[in-house]
C-alpha cells in the first residue's frame, strides 16, 4: 500500500520513479570546443582524438582522448561540463 501511495504521489508531482531525467548536451555550460581547449592547455602539443559527453556519478562530463598523433599513447581527460574543471586524468595507454 505504501509503495502504491509513493507511485501515485510521484505521478502527481510529474516524476517518474522508474526513469531518471538524463542530462544532455543542452544542460552543459561548457561546450565541446571549450572542453577541448581546457584539456589542450593541460597537454600542449597534443590533439583531441575523441570527445563525448557522459554522465558519471550524476555529473555531466566531457570525456576526451588526447594524443600526439595516431598510434601514439593517449591520455584520457575528464572535463566537468558545468564548471570546466579537469577531473580524472588517466595515464597514457598504448
Summarize the structure.
This protein is an alpha+beta fold.
Describe what you observe in this structure.
There is one protein chain. This protein has one domain (22-93): Nuclear Transport Factor 2, Chain: A, CATH 3.10.450.40. Strands 1-2-3-4 form a four-stranded antiparallel β-sheet, with helices on one face. Residues 1-21 have low confidence and may be disordered. The longest helix has 12 residues, at 2-13. The protein has helices spanning 2-13, 32-42, and strands spanning 47-56, 59-67, 74-80, 86-93. It is of the alpha+beta class and 94 residues long.
Largest sheet: 4 strands, antiparallel
What best-fitting shape do the alpha-carbon axes yield?
A: elongated
Percent of residues in β-strands = 35-45%
CATH architect. name: Roll
Radius of gyration: 18 Å
CATH first level: Alpha Beta
User: Low-confidence parts lasting 5 or more residues at pLDDT below 50?
Assistant: 1-21
Strand order of the largest sheet: 1-2-3-4
User: What would you call the structural class?
Assistant: alpha+beta
Instruction: Report mean pLDDT, rounded to a whole number.
Output: 75
User: What's the order of the H and E elements?
Assistant: HHEEEE
User: How many structural domains can be distinguished in the coordinates?
Assistant: 1
Any key phrases for this structure?
single chain; about 90 residues; alpha+beta; Nuclear Transport Factor 2, Chain: A; 4-stranded antiparallel β-sheet; 2 helices; about 35% strand; disordered N terminus
Amino acid at each position: 500500500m505504501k509503495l502504491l501511495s509513493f507511485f501515485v504521489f510521484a505521478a502527481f508531482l510529474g516524476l517518474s520513479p522508474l526513469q531518471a531525467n538524463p542530462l544532455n548536451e543542452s544542460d552543459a555550460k561548457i561546450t565541446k570546443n571549450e572542453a577541448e581547449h581546457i584539456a589542450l592547455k593541460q597537454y600542449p602539443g597534443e590533439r583531441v582524438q575523441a570527445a563525448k559527453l557522459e554522465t558519471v556519478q550524476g555529473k555531466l562530463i566531457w570525456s576526451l582522448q588526447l594524443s600526439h598523433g595516431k598510434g601514439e599513447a593517449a591520455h584520457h581527460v575528464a572535463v566537468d561540463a558545468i564548471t570546466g574543471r579537469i577531473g580524472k586524468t588517466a595515464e597514457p595507454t598504448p
